[in-house]
Amino acid sequence: MDRIVIDGGAPLRGEVQVSGSKNATLPIMTAALLADSPTTLHNVPELRDTHMMADILRALGARVDLAGGVMRVDPSAFNVAEAPYDMVRKMRASIYVLAPMLMRLGKAKVSQPGGCAICPRPIDLHLKGMKALAADVSLDHGYIVVENRAMKGAEVSLTGPNGSSVGATANTVMMAALTPGETIIRGAAHEPEIAELARFLRAMGADVEGEGSSTMRIRGVQALKGCEYSIIPDRIEAGTFFCAAAITEGDVVVRGVEVAHLEAVIDKLSEMGVYVAAEDGAVRVACDGPPRPVSIRTLPFPGFPTDLQAQFMALLSLADGCSTIIETIYQERFIHVPELQRMGAQIRLAGGQAIIEGVKKLAGAPVMASDLRASAALVVACLAAEGLTDVHRVYHIDRGYEAIETKLSGLGANIRRVSTTRKNGNG
Ligand code: EPZ
Q: What pTM was computed for the model?
């Protein structure tokens, strides 16, 4: 398993290009199987997750080629209506294959995704969407088993205990696109990745409207056609680079940013006294001292994104005062706290919130990555820490960040990847 070694303290300077959005690419890849002809996607990030999803679609019979950010998905031989546990457990987003299986093959058998490092990750809203469209849904020995006997459009609310659900909205929209009749989704997720999926489905000939609002309206069509489409930039990668620039007291231009996707994040950085300015399709982030302490509450879009909570906690570890973070989407999403504490961060968890007492410096220490965004937070912290840090299990980072050490070293970070292959050659 690879590890990343960082010798912290260098202020990041220069320009960095954001890659395509992981969380837009994954549902769009599965949506391409709703069509009966090939799709070409541009600006596709080379990530563990996009390669894993490509392998899943290949296992279902589709042909998927990815090179140089261009992905071609040919669904013509798609004919497998089952996604086994060992496939689904690795990546929750694989539940998105339910929709094309159900709508193109008439049935689906997909393992329940199970939990992950950040929380139990329930699927009740996914099931609610399918049942509302009159799919026959049952749970059988850890599998979701669904049949499409006489699905028809309906009205359904997908609001859960923690607000809207990105995944359940995506699955229901994809199913509704080929379900006869009109479907109205109340409490739909507003995330840009859902809006992107809607635009992609329309490009394939779907009748979808209302994306970006709480109510989406979909009228089912007979068939969808493959298309050519370019993926939006990854707002979470962009926000991670904002934190890296600020924590190292650097001056970085992050290119390929959709400012409208990051308004809550940019507002919070400004509140922290960080210089943030939109400059012709890019955002410049500069900081010349410790940030001011703030309070953060994560919320569904357009609120502050849960996927940047850990990275901001790393940044606030060096603020000149006491900050608080309340995590409302995944209440247990504080797995990064112990590793940040090992680097000297003063963080206390009480009553479902994190209280971060800023310190003057963090110290490099061997740390263990645990999930994608927790790992990103450790890298952000290491960039400012004094001394060397080894971040182990970087495969977590590779799930959602394309060539992160190349991009960061391009900004002046002292960072390198060390491949530690075992004697028998396994990585
Ligand atoms: C998507 O996950 C993202 N993943 C997550 O990003 C992101 O954190 C999350 O949305 C919230 O923005 C992808 O897009 C691949 P949800 P998803 O369904 O769809 C509850 C990353 O780091 N819920 O919007 O699985 C759930 O427990 C990943 O890139 C139900 O109660 O998230 C949570 O509290 C991590 N029942 C809330 O809704 C359900 O059936 C939001 O979950 C489904 C979800």
A: 0.96
